[in-house]
Design a protein that fits this description.
Elements (H helix, E strand, L loop, with lengths): L1 E6 L2 E6 L7 H26 L3 H6 L6 H14 L5 H10 L3 H13 L5 H7 L7 H9 L8 H4 L4 H14 L2 H7 L8 H20 L3 H4 L14
Antiparallel strand pairs: 1-2
Helix pairs in contact: 3-5, 4-5, 5-6, 9-11, 10-11
Length: 224
């Protein structure tokens, strides 16, 4: 006979035999499932608070989206102490989006060569936006310069789009030559990047304009 007990929203199935021998076995299995569920929920909560160890545990989750989010959290934390673990998971990972997230985490952990895989992903229609997001989060545009000359035309266009978002004064000199590219898409992307960088620089207050004016000084007086 099977007895169904509902306890705090959980269904417990108890297989009843004359000796009741199966009760403990079933209850133990249910208890283990509850503990595992609680542990997974706790991991997610801790990961949300910025715990690298909890994020690393989520790399074994069956859900590829959760594995991707875990890798991105490790990247955000730049959790160097988890690098060897992440390298191991990167070797065995099958999902392409999770692989890319792990590459981003490894780059943030100091493995600079991982940037090549992220730039290559700009050629992928499925992962292009994901790679664009990661590259836009680089601390500066300089790491991308070496890819411009050797990149495929479509990849170069995407790199220029990234630089439009993250470029600085040095970037203007680096990409100016692409405005005359025979490929109209590259030329247009370079021109757009220059406009965006120039506009952003013009709207950024200079150090001089941000200095407080001394009390009693007139607008035409120079503050020492």
């Amino acid at each position: 006979m099977t007895v169904v007990i509902k306890l705090s929203g959980l269904l417990l199935l108890l297989l009843v035999t004359p000796c009741g021998g199966n009760w403990a076995v079933v209850a133990k299995a249910q208890s283990r499932d509850i503990v595992q569920t609680d542990a997974a929920q706790e991991d997610k909560a801790v990961m949300a608070r910025g715990d690298a160890t909890a994020a690393a545990r989520q790399l074994t989750n069956r859900d590829p989206l959760l594995r991707q989010r875990a890798a991105e959290e490790l990247a955000r934390l730049a959790a160097v102490k988890e690098r060897k673990l992440v390298e191991g998971y990167r070797l065995q990972e099958k999902n392409e989006r999770v692989k890319l997230a792990l590459d981003w985490a490894l780059y943030r952990m100091g493995k600079k060569e991982a940037l090549f895989a992220i730039v290559r992903a700009l050629d992928s229609t499925e992962r292009r936006n994901q790679a664009y997001t990661y590259l836009s989060e680089l601390e500066g545009p300089a790491p991308l310069y070496m890819f411009l000359d050797q990149a495929k035309p479509q990849t170069r266009v995407k790199l220029l789009e990234v630089l439009a978002r993250s470029g600085d004064a040095e970037t203007l000199d680096r990409i100016d030559l692409y405005t005359a590219s025979p490929d109209p898409k590259i030329a247009e992307a370079a021109q757009f990047a220059i406009r965006e960088i120039t506009r952003r620089q013009a709207s950024t207050p200079t150090d001089e304009s941000m200095r407080p004016r001394q009390a009693g000084s007139r607008p035409d007086e120079t503050t020492p």
